[in-house]
Each structure stands twice: as C-alpha cells, then as structure tokens.
Task: structure prediction
Amino acid sequence: MPAKRERRTGPAPARPFFAAGRASILQSAGLKVLKRFDDGVARGEAFLAAFVLLAMILAAVVQATLFNIAERDVAWAHAALDTFSWVDAFLAKGTLWLAFLGASLAAHGDKHISVDVLTKLAPGRLAFVMKGVVGIGAGVVAFFLARVFFQAVLTSAAERPLEYEVLTSGGPAHICAASARAIAESGVARPDVFCAARWGLSMLRVPVETPESAFQLVVPVMFAIIAVRLFVRGVGCFVGLARGEAEGIHGTPRV
Result:
C-alpha cells in the first residue's frame, strides 16, 4: 500500500513582506510593464549619479592641482585656473543632483528612512493597510512638493543676470537668443551647450535664463518620480490585501 502523506498542521511558512507585495503587483501585465520601466529609470538614475560623481571628483582634482601650481607663480596655471572658475558652482549643483538622485534610488529600492515601529507590532492585514495608506499619503505629499519646487525654480529662472544679456538694436536680449553679429559686437562667447539645453527646455515650456536654474530642475523632477513610486507602492499593498496575500505574512514592512 502506498505510504500516506503527512499533513502539515503547523503554521504556513512566513513569506517576506515585499516578496508577497511585489508578487501581487506583478500579476497584472500592465503593472509588469510599469515595473520594468521603473527599473530602467532607476538604472538611468544610477548611471547619472555615477557620472556626476566622477565628473565632480575630476573637476575638483584638476582645480586643486592648478591652484597648487599657480601658487608657485606659474603663468599658464593662472590662465588655466581662470577657465575653471565654474567648478565651485558645478560642485554645489552636483551635490544637489547626487542628493536627489540618491533619494529617488532609495525610494525605488525601499531603502528610504522610515518609521516602522507600529508595523512591527501590527498583524499582516493591518500592516498592509498601514503600508498602503502611508505610501499613498507620502506619494501625494511628494507630488505637491514637486509642484511647489517647480514653481519656485521657474520664479528663480525668470531672473536674467547681466552676463547672460546682450544689447541689440531692438533692446536687451538673452545671449542665446541674440544674433551672431550682436554677440560679436558685445565681445562675449555664446554658451552653446547651455543654449541647446535652454532651447530643449523651452520646447517643454520650461523657460530658464541661466545654467544654475536649469540644474535646479532636478529637485521637482526627482520629487515627481518619488511621488509616483510611493503612490504605486501604496496601491500595490491594497491590491495584495484584496487578493488575500496578507495572510501568513510575518515579515516586517517598512513604512
């Protein structure tokens, strides 16, 4: 006679919270595409953060080297150091980019700072509800922060310093909008890279007057990405709850 199979009477094996929560989201084909897109965005953010960090290190090393050589009254070092006057501003804006790129990557990997005391004490279903409510609420807050910072950046970007202004026959004009003749008569050089970026942003109806204001756009953009990630994660918790995945989950969710 075949041996009888032993029936398990103990509790079901615990499943990690995020494994279950993510499984509930992946059951939808549309959300699978969304997750792949989000992973691609995260890879792009990681590459951009690494590129900015390496560029900051290289620029700082070159500037420091030229400064040490210029202190010994080397003429070419003094001239070269003047061409690197933009490094300090670049390091400041690069730090801003690294901070918000890192914050967005932390939200993608669920590594952001969280307060999870209550969810450690809550049962599976209640933990799902708390995670969902906090995720949706945090996403809404991040969205409004993105709007506020976007308006603040636009207000700051509307100011045009004199070094980006050229006097033409029709009055003062931005250096990127002035004719080649007006720029030649003014004796200034057109920042072609910034002018190309300014033109691209103008196509998106985001007017900027200086490179500094263009760099500050990373703040509302990253807040918007964080808002989408937190909101979708909160909705995913309620999807998992509706499909009964909160049963038997003893892992500790992060809120």
About this structure: The chain has ten helices and two strands.
